[in-house]
Amino acid sequence: MSKYRNCFLLFLAAFVWGVAFVSQSKGMEYMKPFTFTASRNILAVIALMPVIFYRRKKDEKNSINWSITITAGVLCGIALTAGSLFQQYGIVTTSVGKAGFITTLYIIFTPILGIFIGRKSPFIVWISALIAAIGMYLLCMNESFTISKGDIMVFLCAIAFAIHILAVDYFSPKTDGVIISAIQFFVCFVICAVLSLIFDKPSIEQIKTGIVPILYAGFISSGVGYTLQIIGQKGVNPTTAAIILSLESVIAAIAGVTAYSFGFLAADQSLSFRQVLGCVIVFWAVILVQLPIGKNNKN
């Protein structure tokens, strides 16, 4: 029964993250990307504080290697900042649905980039990458054979998130993953806050009018979503967990169209048949790369 409960919690995390694309798009109606990203990340730090205190109270005997933890948090924070900003700038000029599916490509980029640190990628990864490229062509290429700036930005975001995942994978076994997460959110906040003061010229009025998408992206998407993932992954096969979490791309597309139909988003979020086909192919590639085909799994 606990396995089914945890799978449901993972689905809730995917749902929360998928809907977050809508809040990110809505937030751009009130402020610029640096300001929005800084605001959501400081809220994410606040949201994780109770989780950290609770976990440390239960596990007081294990000491923390703060040198490794801080190093990990800073490096992961830089990668997270790059990914978040590319995504946030991309969402300004592309639809929520497309952004969700393109972002999910990090699942394919992660094993490919792992080659540079000595990790071999199974043949199925390369097949999935080829399938994803076909899907991306249908999803992003328009009649004049050009790709929008927003699509390119979100594509770069997926690469940055793949680098982030590899960094987390390297550091998390050495220290507390939740503390790393809190530090990375804080690093992202500091970088974006400085850039916001230089380029965005933020105001209290912007924060007040855009408080709802900020609260959702900060507390719900980052804080609650991350906590659901931590709890949900316990006792669930990693492949199963990854497939469930990748549903965020599908949820993002549905949430974008729904938000537009109810007037919550000003920009049309509908996708053509060609783009929907591209989404299906990309999602198929993402699922395929997570299946244990041609992989040497030792259970």
In short:
The chain has 299 residues and is mainly alpha-helical.
Report on this structure.
The chain is mainly α. Helix content is 77%, strand content 0%. It has helices at residues 2-27, 33-58, 66-93, 96-103, 106-113, 123-140, 149-171, 177-200, 204-209, 211-232, 238-245, 248-261, 273-290. Helix 2 runs antiparallel to helix 8 (177-200), helix 4 (96-103) runs parallel beside helix 7 and helix 4 packs antiparallel against helix 12 (248-261). The protein is globular.
Helix/strand layout:
Elements lengths: L1 H26 L5 H26 L7 H28 L2 H8 L2 H8 L9 H18 L8 H23 L5 H24 L3 H6 L1 H22 L5 H8 L2 H14 L11 H18 L9
Helix pairs in contact: 1-4, 1-10, 1-11, 1-12, 2-8, 2-10, 3-7, 3-8, 4-7, 4-12, 5-6, 5-7, 6-13
Keywords:
mainly alpha, 299 residues
How many runs of DSSP E, i.e. beta strands? 0
**Distance between the amino and carboxyl termini:** 22 Å
| Residue-averaged pLDDT | 88
- What is the succession of H and E elements? HHHHHHHHHHHHH
